[in-house]
Amino acid sequence: MKISTKGRYTLRLMIDLAMNDEGNPIRVKDVAERQGISDKYLEQIIAILNKAGYVKSVRGSQGGYLLKKKPEEYTVGMILRLTEGSLAPVSCVEDVEECDRQKGCITFPLWKKISDAINGVVDTVTLKDLVDWQRNNE
User: Inter-axis angle of helices 5-19 and 127-137, to 10 degrees?
Assistant: First the structure.
């Protein structure tokens, strides 16, 4: 499994929104500047986050975006699955019905262990954890 640029940038965007939340909307242009990411690309990502209800859009001259929930209410898994889709290393782990060879497949237990390990990490690490890690590294 390889996380795409979109998935990585989505995490960076969410971390930035969490770290810079002072109660006022944050402009995508400001995030783009801080993160060194194209504001056009971040606009595409923020639209996905907004549609999913992860961020709140505030219009007007002082507009921008805010997290809809507290950082501890978002897991890395939630955020990545929004842009990446499944995090399973192979499709048969995600959808057991898809593979008729599963019962006799010697590698299925391996793929399942890898999938469980990935999910065990991304579903327990929160956005707040990432913010805390970032602040500890500054």
Answer: 80
At residue 26, the 3 state secondary structure works out as strand
Q: Residue 65 has what DSSP assignment?
A: E
Per-residue pLDDT of the chain (138 residues; tens, 9 = 90+): 789 999 999 999 999 999 999 999 999 999 999 999 999 999 999 999 999 999 999 998 889 999 999 999 999 999 999 999 989 998 888 865 667 777 788 998 999 999 999 999 999 999 999 999 999 987
CA atoms of 12 and 85, how far apart (whole Å): 18
Q: How far apart are CA 17 and CA 31, in angstroms?
A: 8
Could you give the angle at the alpha carbon of 84 between the alpha carbons of 92 and 130, nearest 5°? 115
Question: If DSSP codes are grouped into helix, strand and coil, which group holds residue 55?
Answer: strand
